[in-house]
Amino acid sequence: MSRAEVSQQGTVTVRAAVLTDDESERYFGASLADQGIQAVWLSVDNGSDLPLRFLPIVTDPNYFSPAEVGQLLRAWWRSTNASITAQVARASMPEVIPQKQTAAGFVFTHREGGLKLLQVGFVTGREELLFKFVLRVGGISYAIERVDFDKIYPPDMVEGVDLASLREKLAQLPCCTTNAAGTRDGDPLNIVVVGRGIDALFSFVGRGWRLDEPFDIHSVYRTVRAFLFGSEYLNAPVSPLYVFGRQQDVALQKARNTVSLRNHLRLWLAPFTIDGLQVWVGQISRDIGIKFTTQVLVHDNSSD
After folding, report:
1. Bridge partners of 141?
2. Which tens digits make up the pLDDT trace of 121-156?
3. Range of the domain at 101
4. Which helix (H) or strand (E) holds 23?
5. pLDDT per residue over 246-260, tens digit each?
6. Which among 81, 85, 52 is positioned nearest to 66, based on CA atoms?
7. On the chain, which terminus has fewer CB atoms closer than 10 Å, C or N?
8. Domain end position, chosen among 89, 106, 136
């Protein structure tokens, strides 16, 4: 509650926070992270004259229902299966928040690392309310958590340009990403996104793109399992590529039917703006396979 972010529209106030992997395991009694689940806490103060119907599908199109979470957390050696299932059901976000009342609970989403771009939606009467959050994810996380977007460039280094100058700036960029040493080309730069800060990424999130999970013991376990059994892994870690002398500021992916077949999107904030809007330079590709190496957990073989 103390670290929750707050968003308000009219008489409706929503607070949101993400549990760390350790917090989730302590609270629910089993590891949600091993199942690729991330618990998001919501508190909704409905000061309106109409009830609110919570839409978990807006938060995550493939969210986990409480019954599904309870089933995934069951283990034959664990004597506390029944109490875990009951705890999950009891702690879940209610479907309806009555008028002039406050309700709180968890929605179970897919696990992400670093930052979590979260949308929370409700229907009230004939109106839909949408709240947007950019939440820090605690615990071990991927590179995005170490990115302070306000401090990537000194203010005097960011140049405002017009459309013609923007085209010139883009034409002067290198053709491709590189490795950390800058000695080897990687995937080509082939996408530009213009928007107001990180809010520009919500368009991708709303279409099924997801931030990647961190490199840690949980994602190693899930990646190996998905690789061996050819199964789906919606948030598998993404290997680093470099532009402007640094690895990607943001990485998103859109899963296909297996961990080996994914669409990847890596973005770097550029040192120029247009009409007061940030410019992101990026690389988007479709994976046709993966291989394990000694340098990184997963190396992508991409078809661009």
Report:
1. none
2. 999 998 999 999 988 886 545 555 566 777 889 888
3. 5-136
4. helix 21-28
5. 988 888 887 654 544
6. 85
7. N
8. 136
Identify whether residues 154 and 256 lie together within a single domain: yes
Q: In what order do the strands lie in the sheet with 185-188?
A: 185-188, 176-178, 242-243, 246-247
Q: Which helix (H) or strand (E) holds 253?
A: strand 250-258
137 touches 112 (CB < 8 A): yes
Q: Are strands 261-274 and 277-291 parallel, antiparallel or unpaired?
A: antiparallel
Task: Give the separation between CA 75 and CA 286, rounded to whole angstroms.
Answer: 36
Alpha-carbon distance of 109 to 120, in angstroms, equals 12
- What CA–CA distance (Å, rounded) separates 279 from 193? 6
Please state the domain count of the chain.
2
**Cα separation, 33 vs 141, whole angstroms:** 12
Find tokens 């590179």 and name the residue: 143
Q: What is the DSSP letter of 106?
A: E
Lookup result for tokens 């053709």: 175
* 161 to 167, 200, 271, 277: CA distances (angstroms): 10, 19, 10, 10
| Residues 155 and 132 both lie in one domain | no
